[in-house]
Amino acid sequence: QVQLVESGGGVVQAGGSLRLSCAASGRTFTRYDMGWFRRAPGKKREFVAVIGASGRFTNYADSVKGRFTISRDNAKNTVFLQMNRLKPEDTASYYCAAGVQAGIFDSTYDYWGQGTQVTVSS
Asked: Residue ranges of the chain with pLDDT lower than 50?
C-alpha cells in the first residue's frame, strides 16, 4: 500500500512558476513509476508527466514539454513537478500517482493522491 500526499499548489500569475511535491509513504517507493495528472473543470483527467522508478526515464505531455520538469528524490520518497511559464490553461487540480510499469494512461497507476489545486490568472 502506498499513500500519496500532494502539496505546493496555489494561485500564480501567468508566466510564473510553482513547484508541486508528492510525498509517498511506505518503503517500496523505488518500485514505482510516478506520474502527474491534472483535471481542469469540466474536462477529463489528463496525463502531464511520468518518471521511471530509477529516475532515468521521463516523458511529458506535449502541452507542458519544455515548461514542466518532473523529478524524484528516492531517499526522501518524494516526486516533484517544477512548473515554469505557467499559462491560464494550466489551471487544474494536479494529482500524483504511483504504478508499476506505468505510463501515460491513468489505468496503469495503482495509487493516487487527493490532488492539489493550481490556478493561473491571466
From this structure: none
